[in-house]
Amino acid sequence: MDVLHVVHGYYPALGGSERLIQRVSENLASAYRDRVTVFTADGHNNELFVDPSQPRLPAGVSQLNDVNIRRFAVFNRLGKPLFHLQRLAHHLRLPGNQYLRTVYNGPILPGLRQAIEMAQCDIVAAAAFPLLHMFTTLKACQNTGKPVVFIGALHPLNTYNYQRPMIYEAIRQATAYIALSTYEKEYLINEWAIQPEKIAVVGAGVDIEPYEQANADKFRQQHGLNDFPLVGFIGQQGKNKGVDTLILAMKKVWRRIPEARLLIAGSQTHFTKQLQELIAARLSEEERSRIIFKHNFSEEEKPALFSACDVFAYPSQYESFGIAFIEAWAASKPVIGCRVGAVPSVVSEEEDGLLIPYNNPDELGAALLRLLNSSELRQKLGQAGHEKVKRNYTWEIVTTRWRQVYEQVLNE
Questions:
Q1: pLDDT tier at 399, thresholds 50, 70, 90
Q2: More exposed terminus of the chain, fewer Cβ within 10 Å: N or C?
């Protein structure tokens, strides 16, 4: 099978959709001997789409783990002029403001549509909305008759980005749709009347073995953790990821367990500066000394970070799935998430994790104390999550489901 994946970022670019497409692409190439090509942008993250000051990856053609990669140079000179214009159009509910927002979000990739049209492939799949390349991909496939599968990775609670009828009209026109959770599928059916038979729930995956074998001792020794309890947040420091809530919740934890430590590990964003300001304003010098930052780490280091934690807290508002939860479970760690969006369809409350309201430091602090004070509960939830991953969320299982969608599309 000749497969073309179109995605806004690809390794070493970081993010959930980026990681998902990378692993599926590599597994299709290695396990099924499919010829897989990826078209993507040349940014380390989405901020390049609107900010010319952001660093770039080399544009052009390369190969990684039997996957052919072509990076298109982002055109972003319209970012600043469009920022206020699209905000104002949305605020005033002007006709067509959804199109203006989509162009602003980008990525604007000159040459992408023509490249998709010329690609020698059996099937095209694209991730993720609300970005512009999704619509470019649909138009190119309609021009050539190629079947197109969308992986939307929707965050319905983010109304500014996802309350756009053009997204759901595009999904109706696609050949098939891969949802990451039952929540996403039900949302598309109930809110936008998308045909149920078009949607397959696939989920995301993780390699369990590196997490089972990870040795946390080196990391804990490097940071003088001894036997101190460690709460971990491992993910992008985005505005709606809840890192600020977690920092405030730790004040409640430290009143009861002053030796507890907080690990914040993940790529920095524009929001990182606000986190630093929050820490300076709300935490004492002693409290600040209990936070460990690790901004840069490789995928190979990640299992040890999860393994070093006693509790994984990911109080995010917008998650299309939440790969970080299954990574924590792969290391048999208990998780705390928010009772919003797709998270309750991934985390079973009181069975393999705890759920709290979003943006509630007091509730999060109470949940953290509950877990830190009970090794029995931590072990119970972490082990249940580990078993769930083995049943549903290994990359082998996810890739098999994914390829079955492609096979069904081509057979029909």
A1: very high
A2: C
